[in-house]
Amino acid sequence: MGTSWRRTLVRLLIGTAATVAFLVLFLREVDLSQAWKTMSSLPAWTLLASLGLIAANVFFMTLRWKYLLAGAGFPVDRRKLFSTIAVGRGANNILPARGGDLLRIESLRERQVPIFVSAGTLFAERLLDGVVLSVWIVLGALLIGEGGPVLLTGVALSAATAFGVFLVRFAARHPERAERFIWRLTRFLPARWHTRVTRAAAYFVDGLGAFKGRRRVFLIFATSVSMWLADVAMYYVVGRAYHIQIGIGGFFLLEGIGNLALAVPATAAGIGTFDYLTLIAAKGIDVPSDKATAYVLTMHALTVIPITLLGAALLRPAFPRLFRRHATVEDPA
What we know:
The chain is 80% helix and 0% strand. It has 15 helices and no strands. 42% of the residues are buried.
């Protein structure tokens, strides 16, 4: 218990330090009063269009998770998955270390989905996101003629995630080899823990089952691309509203960098990391400083606030048993 508490404290301290450091760097670069004046001129239609694109993003993410779970042998209805995703993503904006993912896993336990099967599907999501977002960085850099570190970083991330997909597909198609590898890797553990870890790894590999067949691989990649294209469209709509002239490639680039920054598990809602890294990227492709600041703050708000409110509204359908149990305690009659 003491060791677990210390580890949690260390993670919180690291997350807090990262948030503060990047936030300080961001605030040193910007004029918030000028940014607010620019943001106040944003037309209402832009916000409405952005909300529609956020809904499309969550819809495609729901379809992808449905395909991943079906590939693992656990069909779950879309309505349940939609509410669970909304709650999980909303919680990730409040809790550090992607705490919302734990809520998604717990929600699916009500549908008898084993913990490590759910964990395997969430790992597949992160990998698929990495593939698409790194490709966006490469595509954006090429479209606007941006070379150097940005392009090289995109290429390196694309290669790493592509290799990850190869390993995951191999494990999904040859689960007995993956389990045998884990068995050998953990043989130094005490017998009880050795068995538990191997069983957990087997469930985790089951969660990667959608990578077995070509049709499901196509579906999970198609929904991943559709999901992030909706996000690129939102970046484009807001950029055009601010009269930012960087070409479509620039929006691919900013969306890829921004969402990879949001994926940093140490910080809640990407505070600091998203703002600073996206701002530097925007300035690097010649977005004026005042517009860049307003744009980054607007995109961060749109990325965080709507899905957090939606998650709060859908908490009951995501955890029906919890609320039924609470109602029973309150009214035993």
